[in-house]
Design goal:
Distance between the termini: 36 Å
Number of helices: 9
CATH architecture: 3-Layer(aba) Sandwich
Low-confidence stretches: none
Number of domains: 1
Radius of gyration: 17 Å
Bound molecules: nicotinamide-adenine-dinucleotide
Shape: globular
CATH class: Alpha Beta
Strand content: 5-15%
CATH superfamily: NAD(P)-binding Rossmann-like Domain
Structural class: alpha/beta
Length: about 250
C-alpha cells in the first residue's frame, strides 16, 4: 500500500470524513489511530480497520491531546501522519453569536488543530518526518452568511498550513490542506434545516441549491482519496498547498 508502515493519527475519526480517511489509510497499509471525543464511535470504526487502535480524546483539551500522542508512540513506536480532522459547525448570524458560541467553534476547529499538530510534531520529528493533512473547507475561501466563526477558523487553518510548510520544510515534514465542498455527513445534514430557514428556502431547498450548482453532495471517500495522496510520497513535492474538492461548486 501507499502508506505501508506509516503510523497515522486521525482525529474526529468516529464519523463522516474522518472515518473514511481512517479506513482509506488502513487499506493502504497504515497503522491507524482512530481518535474521537466519542469513544464508542471511535471503537466501532477502529473495529473495521485491521491493526488500528481507538483512542478517546477531545482535541480542545491539551492534556487529552498529549495523552493521544503518548498512546500512539507507545503502541506503534512512532508517528508519520496526522490528520487534525475533528470539527464542528454553526449556523448563527454574527449578531446572535455570543462569545461562548464563538469560542466553542474556535476551541475545536482552530485550537484543536493547533494542539493536535503542536503535540504530534515532536513525535513526527523523532520518526524522521512525515505529513500533516489539514482539513479546511471551501468556506475558508470567502465569508458566508451564518457560518462566520466556522469560516474564520477554516481560513486560519489554511493560513497555518502555509506557516507549517515554511517552518518545517528542512525537517522533512510537509503540510497541505484539503478544502472540501458539501459532503453529506451529519455535520452538514444536522444544520440543513437551520440553513434552509435562515436562507428563506422551503424544506429540502438546500438540496435543490446543491443540485443546481454541484449536481450532488461529495462522498467522504472522495475526500479520503485526496487525504491518502497528501499523506503518501506521491505528493512529495506538495507543501503548503490547498486542494479544492467540490465538484466545481465554488467556480460556477
Ligand atoms: P461529522 O460531524 O460527521 O464528524 C465529526 C467527528 O468529529 C464526529 O465523530 C465528532 O464526534 C468528532 N468531534 C467533534 N468534536 C470533537 C472534539 N472536540 N474532539 C474530537 N473529536 C470531535 O463531520 P464531518 O463532516 O465528517 O467533518 C469532518 C471535518 O471536515 C471537519 O473539520 C469539517 O469542518 C470538515 N469539512 C466538512 C465538510 C462537509 O461538507 N461535511 C466540508 C468541508 C470541511
Amino acid at each position: 500500500g501507499l502508506l505501508a508502515d506509516k503510523v497515522a493519527i486521525v482525529t474526529g475519526a468516529g464519523a463522516g470524513i474522518g472515518a473514511a480517511i481512517a479506513r482509506a489509510y488502513g487499506a493502504e497499509g497504515a497503522r491507524v489511530v482512530v481518535s474521537d471525543i466519542n469513544g464508542e464511535a471511535a471503537r466501532e470504526v477502529s473495529s473495521s480497520i485491521e491493526g488500528s487502535i481507538a483512542v478517546t480524546a477531545d482535541v480542545a483539551d491539551e492534556e487529552q491531546v498529549v495523552e493521544l500522542v503518548r498512546r500512539t508512540v507507545a503502541e506503534f513506536g512512532g508517528l508519520h501522519v496526522v490528520v487534525p480532522n475533528a470539527g464542528i459547525a454553526t449556523t448563527k448570524p454574527l449578531l446572535e453569536t455570543s462569545l461562548e458560541d464563538w469560542r466553542k467553534v474556535m476551541s475545536v476547529n482552530l485550537d484543536g488543530v493547533f494542539l493536535t499538530i503542536r503535540h504530534c510534531l515532536p513525535a513526527m520529528l523523532d520518526s524522521g518526518g512525515g505529513s500533516i493533512v489539514n482539513i479546511s473547507s471551501i468556506a475558508s475561501t470567502t465569508g458566508s452568511a451564518l457560518i462566520g466563526s466556522y469560516s474564520a477558523a477554516k481560513a486560519a487553518v489554511r493560513n497555518l498550513t502555509e506557516t507549517l510548510s515554511a517552518e518545517l520544510r528542512f525537517q522533512n515534514i510537509r503540510a497541505n490542506a484539503l478544502l472540501p465542498g458539501f459532503i453529506a455527513t451529519d455535520l452538514v445534514k444536522s444544520h440543513q434545516p437551520d440553513l434552509e430557514r435562515a436562507l428563506g428556502l422551503e424544506a429540502g431547498g438546500f438540496d435543490n441549491l446543491i443540485a443546481a450548482k454541484q449536481t450532488r453532495y461529495g462522498r467522504t471517500e472522495e475526500v479520503a482519496a485526496a487525504a491518502v495522496f497528501f499523506a503518501s510520497d506521491q505528493s512529495s513535492w506538495c507543501n503548503g498547498s490547498s486542494l479544492i474538492l467540490d465538484g466545481g461548486f465554488k467556480a460556477s
